[in-house]
Amino acid sequence: MVRKNGNFYSQLYLAETLKGEVDAWVKEGYPGVTQTTYELLHYWFDREEKEEGFYDCQRRAIETVIYCHEILQIKNLGELFQKVVPDLLYSSKPVYDEVTSIPFPKYCFKMATGTGKTWVLIALLIWQYFNALNK
């Protein structure tokens, strides 16, 4: 927990705040993504003939990273905090120093052991590869 002005905030406040935004975006049908991304998301998550699909936690991770990159146009972790939870960014010097010192994209997601992080990474690699090809 992070304490600010007498109030306590969850250290997962960024993830909790993003969850609501991502949920609304998903319900709207992924507006604002590239055609390539749209096709990949529907192929991965909406096909009826698939034998095995992604777990909910995998889907959540993939959708959240894509939302941050394509919809929010985030280039690094500092920008993500600035856009989503700016108050939290300034509540802790160690958090501020770490977040603002990373000049490159840093996609992080928390998943338990055995929940398929490798599949998420493969999906994100495919997403970036095909979007780069179709620019």
Can you walk through the features of this model?
- Helices cover 59% and strands 4% of the residues.
- It has 135 residues and is mainly alpha-helical.
- The protein has a domain at 11-74 and 104-133.
- A two-stranded antiparallel ribbon has the order 1-2.
- Strand 1 (2-4) and strand 2 form a beta hairpin.
- Helix 1 (13-27) crosses helix 3 (56-71) and helix 3 runs parallel beside helix 7.
- The longest helix is centred in the C-terminal third of the chain and has 17 residues, at 117-133.
Break the fold down into its secondary structure elements and pairings.
Elements lengths: L1 E3 L2 E3 L3 H15 L7 H11 L10 H16 L5 H8 L1 H4 L3 H8 L16 H17 L2
Antiparallel strand pairs: 1-2
Structure summary:
The chain is mainly alpha-helical and 135 residues long. The chain has helices at residues 13-27, 35-45, 56-71, 77-84, 86-89, 93-100, 117-133; strands at residues 2-4, 7-9. Strands 1-2 form a two-stranded antiparallel sheet.
Compute the number of helices. Answer: 7
Uncertain stretches: none
Q: Would you list the SSEs in sequence order as H and E?
A: EEHHHHHHH
Q: How far is it from the N-terminal to the C-terminal residue, by CA?
A: 42 Å
Rg of Cα set: 16 Å
Mean pLDDT: 86
In spatial order, strands of the major sheet run 1-2
Which outline best applies?
A: globular
Give the biggest sheet: 2 strands, antiparallel
DSSP strand content: under 5%
Helix content: 55-70%
Count every beta strand, where a strand is a DSSP E run of 2 or more residues.
2
Quaternary state of the chains: single chain
What is the SS-derived class? mainly alpha
